[in-house]
Design brief:
Blueprint: H1 9-15, E1 25-38, E2 48-57, E3 67-68, E4 71-73, H2 80-92, E5 98-105, E6 116-125, E7 138-147, E8 151-157, E9 162-171, E10 179-185, H3 193-207, H4 224-235, H5 241-248, E11 252-259, E12 267-272
Parallel strand pairs: 1-6
Antiparallel strand pairs: 1-2, 1-4, 2-3, 2-7, 5-6, 7-8, 8-9, 9-10, 11-12
Length: 276
């Protein structure tokens, strides 16, 4: 067939044999992050912000009873974006939330069933504002992240189960800040989803510095202290007040609303100010 000369595309397609190529399948997986308030038990303090990820427990093999990201196969007559939204609704009962493509994961042995390439998405929500009830297999896990120059350790806790992963960082290029991630410890996450989660955390840390993506996690009205907590939780470090104010000064606008109660002085409420 390769040596045959065709007079038209129609003639070529009529003679074309798709079975000459090996088949692979495609999935869409969604990494859903939230930074939301958890009560501290001390009315004089701001509610503590917790960094969370939504996981789904698998009820079938492979990786039966392991936790994974909401995901599934892309239909042959379906775009990848449409598949991601459909799968998110089916797996978690969530819909109409902010999503963007994260990365394409195509390691040869990432799935024991067959050769499967996954297009991953990252989604950001304030889980306390969600009106949709989660599916029975879905659960929010709080994440505690410890990172140094060589590895990342993430501990997951949903108040019923607790487990951790350890990821080794390998710098891809000395002139860049991009890393290759190698899983060193993982017993409870299915497929390569430990690597997907770490990639998503790194992407989010990078993007909040130059985009407004973080406001997808915020309520309509918030104090600057609450917003600063969200930045600090994601970045994993405290920010000096003056530097933080400069960072967000064009992204928020003051309202006439005031937050009262909670044992602290009334605070002015702000809201997100989109770019014009």
């Amino acid at each position: 067939m390769d040596n045959k000369i065709y007079k038209s595309e129609e003639e070529f397609l009529k003679d074309y044999d798709s079975n000459q190529f090996e088949k692979l399948s495609m999935t869409a997986d969604t990494l859903i992050f939230s930074v939301a308030s958890e009560e501290t038990g001390n009315y004089r303090k701001l509610s503590e912000k917790k960094f969370s990820v939504l996981l789904v427990k698998r009820d079938n093999y492979p990786f039966k009873d392991k936790w994974c990201l909401p995901g599934g196969f892309v239909g042959i007559e379906e775009t990848i974006d449409a598949a991601a939204k459909r799968i998110l609704k089916t797996e978690t009962n969530l819909q109409d939330i902010y999503m963007e493509q994260l990365y394409t994961f195509g390691d040869i042995n990432r799935d024991p069933r067959m050769r499967i390439v996954s297009v991953s998405y990252i989604a950001l929500v304030d889980k306390n504002r969600l009106k949709d009830h989660l599916s029975k297999n879905a659960s929010w896990f709080e994440m505690n992240i410890l990172e140094d120059d060589k590895e990342i350790q993430v501990t997951f806790d949903n108040h019923y189960e607790n487990f951790s992963i350890v990821i080794e960082k390998k710098l891809k290029n000395p002139t860049s800040d991009r890393y290759e991630y190698v899983v060193k410890k993982n017993t409870q996450l299915a497929f390569d989803h430990a690597k997907v989660i770490v990639c998503g955390i790194a992407r989010l840390k990078n993007k909040i510095a130059y985009t407004d993506i973080v406001f997808n996690m915020m309520p309509k009205y918030f104090t600057l202290g609450e917003l600063q907590q969200v930045y600090e939780v994601i970045l994993g470090k405290e920010l000096l007040d003056p530097a933080f104010r400069r960072m967000i000064q064009t992204k928020v606008k003051k309202t006439e609303k005031v937050q009262t109660g909670g044992g602290h002085r009334p605070s002015v409420l702000f809201q997100y100010q989109p770019k014009k």
